[in-house]
Design brief:
Rossmann fold, 13 helices, binds S-adenosyl-L-homocysteine, binds iron/sulfur cluster, about 20% strand, 4 domains, Transcription Regulator spoIIAA, globular, six-stranded parallel beta sheet, single chain, alpha/beta, binds FE3-S4 cluster
Length: about 450
């Protein structure tokens, strides 16, 4: 008999990671169990198409799956997420073992579809229609489940911004906000099952509740933050990703007012040159970005900022690029993700003139990453000697000089990973430490 086993490979952003975690819980509720790829009847790839590289990884993953599951009776593959949305039933033509293609809006119906496919061997399903509003799904959290201390809760799907380089509005569809009641219910449910920290997720969280492009009126996102912060049991609140053009004064003020809101903000800059920002369609310039940085530091003097950057956007000159280096320094980022510009099908910039050669993009990326690395090291070095609270997440992977059982890993309020030696601990404990040393990408702490 064919086994009821599954395996999930996940690419892309935190929204995909969260969708995959949900899908795993929902399949387990239906009696499936997790297995290595070689033993999985249902192999699921949750895909990302934001750049060409992650898209290509999907095709190699499908090749790997086909080979790995050749001895499993009734085995088939599922393609979920953004490449699924982009390519749709095209997967059926190229990959005979793919029997379900499911986009972000339809992921809630994937468990039922997988069940059907297990029962009807000849069937193939393409679930890539966009829905008109946010699709609620069964939370798949059982009364006796224990969840990790750090939880992620979706507050919206999609994006209306159409930045010139970005495929997300095409793969995730238009912005659809989730109702605040449903968000608060899910937050309460995860807090009841052991979560202590919640990160609210969306492609453009600042415009939560403004799905039809309205920009005036009170910030619905600020209201939501206040309501989530009040929930009993919540120690820490974070959110990703805000767009600088929509970061309201109310939200900025909350960094100084809500004790649960962590002093860390990921605020994608993308480029430092006003000409490039304009062609990207970001709708802010470098001065407006720096005004936000100042306002954030005024509201919350110890706030740490991180960012996303693209190098080699069409038409980017050496001088434009230097302005990115300059602004990265001026804004004082503690870390940043940086990428070479990649043409995406259907986006505006795919048709722009002035494409930059691959070697030039890589050379700029290396220079930018060297600077980001330097700033990250300086940030971590500056933490040494400070006292702070660590939310324990689990056993430390690398150990911290102590035996493995005594090594714990957690995060400080700024999102830095901190390893500590602790004889006994429990995920979700808040531990007071003094930062004793800085490693390349993490910190060490001594319990006080
Ligand atoms: N909604 C978020 C993140 C979107 S995707 C935001 O608005 O910031 C994550 C990051 O991928 C982006 O911030 C951008 O830096 C990068 N990215 C998106 N499209 C890209 C492309 N075509 N080429 C290179 N990087 C890209
Ligand atoms: Fe893409 Fe821009 Fe939307 Fe972010 S805000 S998801 S970069 S279109
Ligand atoms: Fe990638 Fe889709 Fe997220 S394109 S970054 S998985 S929204």
């Amino acid at each position: 008999m064919a086994p009821r086993t599954y395996h999930i490979l996940t690419f892309g952003c935190q929204m995909n990671v969260t969708d995959s975690q949900w899908l795993a819980r929902a399949l387990e509720k239906r009696g499936f169990s997790a297995a290595p790829l070689e033993e999985a009847r249902v192999a699921i790839v949750n895909t990302c198409s934001v750049r060409e590289k992650p898209e290509l990884k999907v095709y190699s993953a499908l090749g790997r799956i086909r080979h790995a599951s050749r001895n499993v009776p009734g085995a088939f593959a599922v393609v979920a997420g953004c490449v699924a949305q982009q390519i749709g039933s095209g997967f059926f033509e190229k990959f005979p073992h793919v029997r379900l293609v499911v986009g972000g809006d339809a992921i809630g119906s994937a468990p039922e579809a997988i069940e059907r496919l297990c029962q009807e061997p000849g069937l193939r399903l393409n679930l890539t229609d966009f829905s008109a509003s946010y699709n609620e799904r069964d939370p798949a959290i059982g009364p006796s489940d224990t969840l990790p201390p750090v939880a992620f809760v979706n507050i919206m799907q999609g994006c209306n911004n159409f930045c010139a380089y970005c495929i997300v509005p095409y793969t995730r569809g238009r912005q659809k906000s989730r109702s605040s009641e449903a968000i608060l219910d899910e937050c309460r449910a995860v807090l009841d099952r052991g979560a202590k920290e919640i990160t609210l997720l969306g492609q453009n969280v600042n415009s939560y509740g403004m799905d039809n492009g309205e920009t005036s009126g009170p910030s619905r996102f600020a209201e939501l933050l206040c309501r989530v912060a009040e929930l009993p049991g919540l120690l820490r609140l974070r959110f990703v990703t805000p767009h600088p053009k929509d970061l309201s004064p109310e939200v900025i003020r909350l960094f100084g007012e809500l004790p649960q809101l962590c002093p860390r903000l990921h605020l994608p800059l993308q480029a430092g040159s006003d000409a490039v920002l304009k062609r990207m369609g970001r709708k802010y310039d470098s001065a407006a970005y720096m005004r936000l940085v100042e306002a954030l530091r005024k509201a919350c003097p110890d706030i740490a900022l991180s960012t996303d950057l693209i190098v080699g956007f069409p038409g980017e000159s050496e001088e434009d690029f230097r302005q990115t280096l300059h602004l990265v320094q001026e804004a004082g980022f503690m870390s940043g993700f940086s990428f070479c510009y990649s043409d995406r099908p259907g986006t505006a910039s795919a048709g722009f003139d002035g494409k930059i050669a691959a070697e030039e993009k890589l050379e700029r990326l290396e220079r930018l990453q060297a600077q980001l690395e330097q700033q990250a090291e300086a940030w971590l070095a500056g933490r040494v000697g400070r006292r702070t609270d660590i939310l324990l997440e689990g056993a430390s992977r690398k150990g911290s000089g102590a035996s493995a059982a005594e090594s714990w890993q957690g995060k400080d309020p700024w999102g830095d990973t901190v390893n500590i030696a602790l004889p006994a601990g429990h995920p979700g404990d808040l531990v007071r430490v003094e930062i004793s040393a800085a490693k390349r990408h993490s910190l060490m702490g001594t319990v006080l």
